[in-house]
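Hi both,

Apologies for the delay on this - the queue was longer than expected. I finally got the adenosine-5'-diphosphate-bound model through. Below you'll find the protein sequence and the ligand SMILES exactly as submitted, and right after that the structure tokens for the full complex including the ligand.
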Amino acid sequence: MATKARVGSGSQIGIITRYNFLNYFRARRFYVMLSIMLLISLLLTAVVGYYRPVTFLGIPGESASTAVLGFYGAGWGSFVSIVVILSAAFFGGDAISGEFQNRTGYFLVPNPIRRSAIYVGKWIAALAASTIILLIFAGVMLANGLYYFPGNVPWEFAQSVAFAWIYLVAALSLTFAFSSLFKSSSISILMSVILLLFVFGVIDTVSSAVAGVEPWYSITYGAGIITSILNVPYPAHQLTQSLGSLAGGPNRTNARFQLTTFNATVPEGLGILLVYFVAMAALGLWLFERKEFTS
Amino acid sequence: MAPSLEAVQLTKNFGSFTAVSGLDLKVQGTKCVGFLGPNGAGKTTTMKMFTGLIAATSGSALINGVDVSKDKKSALASCATLIETPEIYSSLTPKEALSMICEIRGVPKAERGKRIDEALGLVKMTEWENKRVGSFSKGMKQRVNVASTLLSDPEVIILDEPSTGLDPRGMSEVRSIVKSLSDRLVFMSSHLLAEVTEVCQEVALVDHGKLLVYDTLENVTARFSGGGGSVQVGFSRMVDEETASKVSKLQGVQGVTRSNDRHLIVRFDPKAVSQDKLFEGVAGLKAGAVSFEQASGLEDAYLSLIKETL
Ligand SMILES: Nc1ncnc2c1ncn2[C@@H]1O[C@H](COP(=O)(O)OP(=O)(O)O)[C@@H](O)[C@H]1O
Ligand SMILES: [Mg+2]
């Protein structure tokens, strides 16, 4: 019995990451996600190639630097958040609940390993799998961009990709927390998608347009920097338009007819995503540490 | 220090229901201890508290003196576990799944291959070692689960009904594996008396979350089988109250317990009636008795301690 060496938690995180990644990489789900992303890429490539829409390729007379940003904004910018949300939901949405529902936790947990090491290891594996998806999507968009705007890769696109990855980090933290909260895999995946795809969007709109309050507490509001960065100039932090002027009528100053939109500044957006990452990681870990393997 | 498992006032409530109630039990040394009790007695719940799968409501569970709830990682460092029927990531092969356990448990790289081969050989899964677990039957998965407890040379092994889901040959193979682990402390739950009788030297009997007795197999048998004889009588149909009552009125019969629908355990005083006379008596009832055999001592003790089963 002299052959036992205590394994540090850091090494154990690496072990959990490797085997979970192997499991992801062989599982159907990874290829479903890959296909969804490739389908979006393919559609974008085909539509732009065939119709050559001005939203993508620029209005005649527009400067090249504006046009290329417009291209990335219309393609990458419109779809990146769906890719991030679906990846986070697919790879994180049942990461923990699956251990309970599929009973794989009974194989893993009763070993000399902390639950936190399992959690972090699985999280890193999910991040690796989703990062692959995100980078392939960015790669396809970049290839398209280089085709239409050879040699012109705007610095803002690189920033946008970096922001998207940070959004992915925060979103995975949130979907992991969800997967610790629910016992059923399908419910935790579904709740993650609904929340990130719809609920936060509605909250953002209602908060800013109806209540006139900046939705600084919303993860999707923070993620707005991914597309904002592709606009020149960067959108105003707060924009109040009167409905009358929008409708083309006389400019009314009555507050009742005003519509407010907010755009997070880059530091603010990064701050929101960072807070989500930290808070949701803490919440998810706390939930997982207390969750019981019953039934 | 001898390997040990200790429960101190270990209690688990599920809402208002108490599944394990103030369990005090210390098992120590290299031997196999059977954790015996009817379905729902609290065996799995107790073992889950020993392995960190659930938290105790109060009291503590210690492995080699380390409190599981305070430091699960140290407590399980030299303890392998198999609780209920775990599942393995479906796209991994048995070899990969067992490698993962070896790595987590710190089995040196140079030894891993050999250990895994040996363990898979013992559970007769070598042929399947590179196939994905997802396509395996319950019994095949359970064989891999059993193999996973043999990898790291643990001092303590906790097995919760390890033969669940196995075919008769598999059950017998698992019994021989457990018997071969005599240089460790094996704590194995079971509701199968024959299994415990065959592989364990000691037995802890629980019911309704409470420990009824913990002693060597011989002592439990001697203390609770009433000193008399006991036989198991099989019937061709369901045993009704009337039949049971008739049997209990036969000469020399001290008690009758239903062991299942078609079987009665009959305790008798050998001084008052010989076994062959009792046989004739039962047959004379013309109540459909079709078999008559000596009951094991443990069976008798079990039935006298556990009055009602599911
Ligand atoms: N999650 C739970 N919620 C409520 N009751 C439970 C739960 N888990 C187990 N029980 C109850 O606790 C008792 C003991 O269960 P268990 O430990 O699984 O028994 P055993 O393994 O001895 O068959 C049973 O009555 C069971 O119904
Ligand atoms: Mg059980």
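Main takeaway for now: Residues B 43-44, 160-161 surround magnesium ion (ligand 2) (CB under 6 Å).

I'll put the files on the shared drive as well.

H.
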